[in-house]
Every structure is written in structure tokens, then in C-alpha cells.
Write a structure and sequence with these properties.
By secondary structure, the protein is α+β, with helices and mostly antiparallel strands. It is 33% helix and 17% strand. It has eight helices and eight strands, in the order αββββαββααβααβαα. A hairpin with an 8-residue loop joins β1 and β2. α5 crosses α6.
């Protein structure tokens, strides 16, 4: 990701995101959330480079700044809560997308945020169905949204989407992170037996308590 267009286009893939140009400078563009008007991505040019500003959890702020020389304290924004990313080609695109996604999550109570948290809670050596993840995330009817969110997983290492299967225990036909067969390899590494592209939900599936309130 090196251009304004790429950054803006990715920002607009998030739910209820829209572009805004509130400043006189034509090169400044904000990506906001419709319901709250909160900004989670600012795109502009400075010193011959495309810059983006993203909101950051203070506990991760210095991690990103130390990991990449092109991640700096937020320019023209609160430096405790914002980072500036120079799109100079030195940062892997997946990492840039992860930082943008984290910024979006910080300004919203998005379904994706709750879905990712639910997936983090699936213990190693077990699996959950899309429906169970939806229930854990607070809405049993959004199983399809679970699939969409996991397909855009910004942190495959921290959000173990390979532990999610369908209602029959079947693995994804084409796992998004590593290709066909990778999901089975990751599950088997944790002790989950995969046979004919399926796991035994009675043996490896989690139990989700129903909310009867």
C-alpha cells in the first residue's frame, strides 16, 4: 500500500465508513464512521510522501513505533493516541491494514470487533461454529457476518480464525490464510483430528451457554 487511492479504498471497506474533506487543503481526506462521525483514518501528503494517521491503543502505540521506522507519533493529532504511517513501501501491506482495522475498532463498537474478540476466546485444541461465534459476539443471527469478518482478519496470528468451522464441522474449502489444507494443518498442530475435511464437533467443539435473559 503506497498510494492515497489504496489507503482510501481500504478505509471505505469498513461498515458505515465514508470519505470527508473538511479542510481547505485538497490533499487531506478523512475516513469517518457515519453513525458517530468519528475519524479512524486520515490520508494526506507531506514531504513528498503519502501519510496516514490512525488511532492506536496506547498499549500498542510504542510497539508499532519501535517495529517500523516509518511509524511515527501522530502528526497534527494527539501523539498519545494517534500514529502516523509513512507509505514508503517499508511496511508490509498486511500490517498497515491491521493498524487501520485497529483504529476503526477503537472508534466503534463494531460487530467485527466483537467477532474477533469471540474468536480469541476459543481455546487451543477446540473449534467453534460460525453460529457459536455469532452467539458469543452477541447476535446469533449474524453467522454470515462472522464469515465476512474472518475473511478480512487483520491479525491471523492473534485472532485464530482457523478454529472456526461450519455447523457440520467442515473446514473452509479454501482457507483465506495459507491456501487449501492450511486450516487442517493448524488444527492438527493443536491436537484436533481432521478427517475428510471435517472435525468431530462432539469431541472438539466448544459449548456456548445460551443467554436466557
Amino acid at each position: 500500500m503506497r498510494t492515497r487511492e489504496e489507503a482510501i479504498q481500504y478505509g471505505l471497506t469498513f461498515d458505515e465508513a465514508y470519505a470527508d474533506k473538511p479542510f481547505p487543503r485538497a490533499d487531506w481526506q478523512l475516513i469517518r464512521v457515519k453513525t458517530s462521525k468519528k475519524t479512524f483514518l486520515a490520508v494526506y501528503e507531506r514531504n513528498g510522501l503519502v501519510n496516514i494517521n490512525v488511532k492506536v491503543d496506547p498499549s500498542w502505540r510504542d510497539f508499532w513505533r519501535n517495529a517500523y521506522a516509518s511509524v511515527l507519533p501522530g502528526w497534527h493529532q494527539n501523539k498519545e493516541h494517534w500514529n502516523t504511517i509513512l507509505l514508503d513501501g517499508s511496511i508490509p501491506e498486511q500490517e498497515i491494514k491491521r493498524m487501520i482495522a485497529e483504529s476503526y475498532d477503537l472508534v466503534t463498537d463494531s460487530p467485527a470487533k466483537r467477532i474477533y474478540q469471540a474468536v480469541r476466546e476459543i481455546p487451543a485444541g477446540h473449534v467453534a461454529t460460525y453460529g457459536q461465534v455469532a452467539q458469543m459476539a452477541g447476535n446469533p443471527r449474524m453467522a454470515r457476518a462472522v464469515g465476512n469478518a474472518l475473511h478480512k482478519n487483520p491479525d491471523p496470528l492473534g485472532i485464530p480464525c482457523f478454529r472456526v468451522v461450519n455447523a457440520q464441522g467442515e473446514l473452509a474449502g479454501e482457507f483465506a490464510f495459507g491456501g487449501a489444507g492450511q486450516q487442517a494443518k493448524l488444527l492438527e498442530r493443536e491436537g484436533v483430528r481432521v478427517k475428510d475435511g471435517r472435525v468431530d464437533l462432539k469431541k472438539y467443539g466448544i459449548q456456548v451457554k445460551r443467554d436466557l435473559t
